Amino acid sequence: MNTQHKDLTDLQIGVLGGGQLGRMMLQSSTDFNLQIHMLDPDANAPCAHIAQTFTQGSLLDYETVMEFGADKDVITIEIETVNTEALKALQKQGKKVFPQPEIIELIQDKRKQKTFYKANRIPTADFILTENKQEVQAHASFLPAVNKLGKGGYDGRGVQVIKTASELNKAFEEPSLLEKLIDFKKELSVIVARNESGEVKCFPLVELAFHPEANLVEFLFAPAEVSVEIEEKAQKLAEDLITKLDLVGLLAVEMFLTQEDEVLVNEIAPRTHNSGHHTIEANITSQFEQHLRAILDLPLGSTELIKPAAMVNVLGEKGFTGNARYEGMHELLSENGVHLHLYGKKITKPFRKMGHITLTDENTASLKQKALRVKEILKVKA
């Protein structure tokens, strides 16, 4: 189906996944009067009650994805755990599928990801592919390292740090990779977009701080406190990667800045990403609008940062599971420059992403202080 002959507002756009990323994409899509339809296994997904239409069904079931995509012009994702065989079949029928199914397939498997980096001279940590626990245990001389499951890992799950031979019993039995543990100064992220015409644009580099227990991003700061040279190196690397992948859509590129000021690619996600949430308030074009522009082959928007920003993830409190209850809302919203985004999730669990807070300020130093303060104000309990 040739989308060029249809008016933008007549296009039927299908999204696999109806979580918070889809919810923010929907909110952005209203500015362009787009028709967005969502598929998600959870009847109470964040998008369930606000999408043009919402279908409850498995993202991994071939027939479900085929049926959902049958009347769509453009199909995209907000999560990688989808049936790529169905997406390939829909692509053959003439549907526009972005990111392309072959790229989703590559990114679903961290082993294939790393092999792609090596083959395409993308700087990354040294690694060894392993098939089982016994093979990992045979590489004690490679330690300290990180053992990552090839498939199925998400938000810190499927990742084990193995520093000494005595910890090798933690290794995964399934196909995985053993990756050199990097002594990094900073964890960084770049979001880069590419449309079908080949136009590429990067968002400014951001700096990430991870929750020590949940292994999730806890804070984000934009811009990253690095030199112009390092920012340019990181952006060039992201542009090189999206071009070599030939990906249409958005690519989040998580990176390490080493003690020697090398920039290494850690992992990538072919979609909107937690490290770009601040762009809704802080940049001229948000990552969600940029994703829609990219998959519809529209000119990419300006990624310029309007003012410094921080992002704090709102995570479910440890020890609480049940109907979500928010404490500290009044105090939070009395803070200047605070923008709250709740994701519409009814049930809270320990460390579940329930929302995020964006803070904007002219002063980067005061932003960090404010972020630390704000983190302690809003609590999600049951």
Walkthrough of the structure:
- With 382 residues, this protein is an alpha+beta fold.
- It folds into 3 domains: 3-97, Rossmann fold; 126-180, ATP-grasp fold, A domain (Dna Ligase, domain 1, 2-Layer Sandwich), CATH 3.30.1490; 184-381, ATP-grasp fold, B domain (D-amino Acid Aminotransferase, Chain A, domain 1).
- 26% of the residues lie in helices and 29% in strands.
- The strands form 5 sheets. Strands 10, 11, 12, 13, 14, 15, 16, 19 and 21 form a 9-stranded antiparallel sheet that branches.
- Helix 1 crosses helix 9 and helix 2 (62-69) runs parallel beside helix 3 (84-92).
- The longest helix has 18 residues, at 228-245.
- It is globular and about 60 Å long.
**Number of domains as seen in the coordinates:** 3
Say which CATH homologous superfamily of the largest domain is assigned: ATP-grasp fold, B domain
Helical content stands at 25-40%
Average pLDDT: 94
Beta-strand residue fraction: 25-35%
CATH topology of the largest domain: D-amino Acid Aminotransferase, Chain A, domain 1
Number of strands: 22
What structural class results from the helix and strand content? alpha+beta
Ends distance: 48 Å
Described by strand count, sense and barrel closure, the largest sheet is: 9 strands, antiparallel
CATH top level of the largest domain is Alpha Beta
**Count of helical stretches:** 11
Catalogue the unreliable spans.
none
CA gyration radius, whole angstroms: 21 Å
Shape by Cα distribution: globular
By CATH, the architecture of the largest domain is named 2-Layer Sandwich
